[in-house]
Structures are given as structure tokens and as C-alpha cells.
């Protein structure tokens, strides 16, 4: 699955209205029956107008027809949800054009986008329900048992949670990309001009960088948080040129952390395991890549927890939990993320290979658009869109 904006500019305003109607209908229908789509869309052209739009949308794969024993209906596809999110970002003037895709993971697509000032940003599209062919083969039961449609709910939750954490972390002065906006399963954030640690073959002072990364783990812990995936892919290294007192040019390295949907609280029942895993990940990487091993043991979870209690700082785990997530939402999301992790471990023993050999799993990569695509939002956002846009930010999930 990848974002494909080609059909976007050809959609008429009625088509957007019908697409939005399918989205609204899917809040309580796995398959949205055609009469319901008609009712929600309330097109001036009546049923025939709706049918015309339905065919247009189905033709470009934004909705899909599903025949079931009880009734036939339509469901929104990932493509359809991508379009709706882009439409919202573009109506808010946050995105004007979509450029190249810079990353594709199992859980997300990362796109470079720009606003109409030409400022580049990053759009992260969560794809939590996505399962690769490789893993599908060994997970047929998993697929069978999965409530269909939950990909939309889970991807949306992942985006909401990540956005909430990024805001809270930035407010506390943590080095994270500035979160700009969230719509449905997508997050818009500042583009960091940096490479992931993974791509850096040598650093002038490994001990210093190691110390900084461990400090970040401990600083998160003081605020009640464990990143949960603190690895060389999720740490970007900014190179900053500085002039030393003696007038020489030197490079300083500044880590920026990304990727937060799996963050856990220091009070989580498996907190110690996640904490140790994050620490171990950095240790292993520094020893393999830079042949650096710290002479100090730890840090240890027990000490970090004690420090957290003593410090009495704002508890970001509580802040985020208080920001509109129900216990059920957090549990659902966590279960999906852990399932995914388990599948990853099952399908491939080496994380590194997994990340490196990542390729798109379903559709042909027909248009990795080298150039940018302008989003054609020729049609004004009408009241229904506005209604859904506000609805979807307030009560994204039923
Ligand atoms: P995933 O959940 O799929 O791992 P990430 O948020 O870790 O997604 O992003 C995947 C990759 O995309 C990162 O390793 C990084 O190279 C790039 N990336 C993500 N966000 C940004 C950003 N704000 N600026 C620059 N590059 C980014
Ligand atoms: Mg990542």
C-alpha cells in the first residue's frame, strides 16, 4: 500500500461528499450499505448522482464493494482514508503538494510534503493493519480472527497517540520533530534534516554520543516514559557545524528521537523489560558499529524509577493518558503493536534484515513519483467535509 495521489485532482465535489459519507457510515458499519451512503451524502442529484460517484470512487480504489450474505455494501480502503486525510490537511493549508516517499516500514509510510510556501514537512501515514504477504502466509488464522475494519481504528489510534506524545515531549523540551497536525491515521511534522544513526559509519566521539543517548533514556524515565523502540532507526543525528574558541570548525552531533506509538509508562507491568531492551539496543549498536563499550554498568530500571519518584517532574505518561484516551483504546493499540512485534520476530530472526529488506507488499510500485504532485482540491470544502473534519478530530473513534 502506498499513497497515490494521481486520482485526487479528478474527483468532483460530489465524489468527496460520497467518500466522506462512506467514512461516516463506517463508524458503525463494517460494510456501509448503499442506501445509508445516499442518506448521509444527501446529494442534490439524488440516488443516481450517488451511484455515479460510487462508481468513480470504486474505479480508483478509494472504496471497495463487498458482497456479503446479508447485504452488499462498500468499505473505505486505505487509499480512501489517505485521500480524506490529505484533503483535510490541504483544506487547513498545511499541505499543498506531496513529494517523494522517504520511508516505508511495516507500520507506516513516510512522505515528504510541502505547504504553499514551499516549506517541506513530513507526513507519517500509519498502517497498523497492514500485513505483508510474507507474514500473511504464516498468519492466516490471525487474519481470520481480526475484526475487519479495525485497521482504520488502530491506525488512527496510533496516529493520535504518537501525536499526543510528540506534543507533550516537545513541550518538555525533548529533541523531537515539531508535531504540526493530525488527521485520521496521519501525522504532519517538521522535517528533520538528518540521517538515522543507522546510516552513520563513524562519529568523532562515540562515548559522548552514547552518554547523550543514555541520558535521553533516563530523562524520559524521569517523566514516566519508556520509548519502547529506541534503536538506530528511530534516532536521527543532526550534524551541526560550530566554530570552536580557537576558531576551528567542528561538528557537533545532536540526536533527535522519533517514532512514538509504542511508548509505555514506567508503571507498565513489563516496564523493566522495555527499559532494559532500549538500553541494550544502544549498547549493542555502539559496540558493533563504533566498537565502543561503556565501562559503567546499567543504567538500571530500579534506579531510574527511584530517580523518577524523587524528581517529581511532570508525568508525561499521565498527561497523555488524560488527553482523551480510554483504557480500552490504549489496550487495543498495545495489543496490535505487540502482535506486530511478535510477527516480526516470527517471520525474521534478524531485525536488521527485516528493516533493510523492507519492500512494499501489495500493489506494484508504479509511481514512485520523483517529482511532486500537487493536490487538486479544486472543490471548496463543503459543510459535510467540515463537519467530518471537526468530528474526526474530536471523536475519531466511536
Ligand atoms: P516507522 O514507525 O515505520 O518505523 P518512523 O517514524 O520511525 O516510522 O519513520 C521511518 C523513517 O522515516 C525514519 O527512520 C526516518 O529515516 C524517516 N523519518 C521519519 N520522520 C522523520 C522526520 N520528521 N524527519 C526526517 N526523517 C524522518
Ligand atoms: Mg521507526
Give a verbal description of the structure.
This protein has 398 residues and is α+β, with helices and mostly antiparallel strands. Helix content is 44%, strand content 18%. It contains 14 helices and 14 strands. The strands form four sheets. The chain has a six-stranded antiparallel sheet with strand order 7-8-6-5-4-14, with helices on both faces. Strands 1-3-2 form a three-stranded antiparallel sheet. The protein has a three-stranded antiparallel sheet with strand order 9-11-12. A hairpin with a 3-residue loop joins strand 4 (97-104) and strand 5 (108-114). Helix 1 packs across helix 2 (34-41), helix 1 crosses helix 3 and helix 8 runs antiparallel to helix 9. The longest helix has 22 residues, at 150-171. It is elongated. The two termini are 25 Å apart. Mean pLDDT is 83; it is low at 132-149, 348-370 and 376-398. Bound molecules: adenosine-5'-diphosphate and magnesium ion. Magnesium ion binds at residues 105, 233-234, 259. The site of adenosine-5'-diphosphate has 17 residues, from strand 4, strand 5 and strand 6.
Task: Enumerate the strands of the largest sheet in spatial order, edge to edge or round the barrel.
Answer: 7-8-6-5-4-14
Query: SSE order, as H and E?
Result: HEHHEEHEEEHHHEEEHEEEEHHHHHEH
Helix content: 40-55%
Class per helix and strand makeup: alpha+beta
Give the N-to-C terminal Cα separation.
25 Å
- Strand percentage lies at 15-25%
Principal-axes shape call:
elongated
Number of strands: 14
Cα-based radius of gyration, to the nearest Å: 23 Å
Which compounds are bound in this model? adenosine-5'-diphosphate, magnesium ion
Count of alpha and pi helical runs: 14
Sheet with the most strands, sense and barrel status:
6 strands, antiparallel
Query: Which ranges are low-confidence, i.e. pLDDT below 50, for 5 or more consecutive residues?
Result: 132-149, 348-370, 376-398
- Mean pLDDT equals 83
Amino acid at each position: 500500500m502506498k499513497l497515490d495521489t494521481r486520482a485526487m485532482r479528478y474527483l468532483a465535489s460530489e465524489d468527496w461528499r460520497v467518500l466522506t459519507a462512506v467514512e461516516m457510515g463506517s463508524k458503525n458499519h463494517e460494510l456501509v450499505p448503499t442506501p445509508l451512503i445516499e442518506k448521509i451524502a444527501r446529494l442534490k442529484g439524488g440516488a443516481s448522482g450517488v451511484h455515479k460517484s460510487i462508481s468513480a470512487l470504486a474505479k480508483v480504489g478509494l472504496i471497495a464493494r463487498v458482497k456479503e450474505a446479508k447485504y452488499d455494501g462498500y468499505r473505505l480502503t486505505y487509499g480512501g482514508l489517505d485521500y480524506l486525510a490529505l484533503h483535510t490537511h490541504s483544506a487547513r493549508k498545511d499541505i499543498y503538494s506531496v513529494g517523494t516517499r522517504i520511508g516505508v516500514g511495516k507500520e507506516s509510510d513516510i512522505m515528504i510534503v510541502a505547504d504553499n510556501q514551499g516549506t517541506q514537512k513530513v507526513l507519517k501515514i500509519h498502517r497498523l493493519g497492514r500485513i505483508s504477504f510474507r507474514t500473511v502466509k504464516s498468519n492466516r488464522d490471525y487474519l481470520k480472527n481480526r475484526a475487519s475494519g479495525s485497521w482504520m481504528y488502530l491506525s488512527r489510534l496510533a496516529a493520535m497517540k504518537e501525536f499526543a506524545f510528540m506534543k507533550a515531549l516537545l513541550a518538555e523540551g525533548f529533541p523531537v520533530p515539531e508535531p504540526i497536525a493530525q488527521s485520521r491515521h496521519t501525522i504532519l511534522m517538521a522535517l528533520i534534516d538528518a540521517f538515522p544513526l543507522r546510516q552513520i559509519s563513524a562519529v568523532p566521539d562515540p562515548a559522548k554520543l552514547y552518554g547523550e543517548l543514555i541520558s535521553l533514556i533516563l530523562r524520559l524515565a524521569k517523566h514516566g516514559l519508556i520509548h519502547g523502540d529506541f534503536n538506530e532507526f528511530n534516532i536521527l543525528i543532526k550534524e551541526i557545524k560550530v566554530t570552536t574558541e580557537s576558531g576551528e570548525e567542528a561538528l557537533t552531533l545532536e540526536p533527535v528521537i522519533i517514532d512514538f506509538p509504542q511508548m509505555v509508562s514506567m508503571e507498565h507491568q513489563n516496564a523493566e523489560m522495555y527499559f532494559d531492551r532500549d538500553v541494550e539496543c544502544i549498547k549493542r549498536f555502539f559496540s558493533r558499529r563504533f566498537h565502543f563499550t561503556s565501562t559503567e554498568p546499567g543504567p538500571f530500571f530500579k534506579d531510574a524509577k527511584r530517580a523518577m519518584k524523587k524528581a517529581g517532574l511532570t508525568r508525561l505518561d499521565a498527561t497523555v493518558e488524560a488527553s482523551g484516551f480510554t483504557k480500552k483504546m490504549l489496550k487495543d493499540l498495545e495489543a496490535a503493536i505487540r502482535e506486530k512485534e511478535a510477527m516480526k520476530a516470527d517471520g525474521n530472526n534478524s531485525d536488521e534484515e527485516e528493516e533493510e529488506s523492507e519492500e512494499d507488499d501489495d500493489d506494484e510500485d508504479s509511481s514512485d513519483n520523483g517529482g511532486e504532485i500537487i493536490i487538486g482540491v479544486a472543490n471548496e470544502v463543503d459543510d459535510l467535509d467540515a463537519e467530518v473534519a471537526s468530528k474526526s478530530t474530536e471523536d475519531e473513534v466511536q
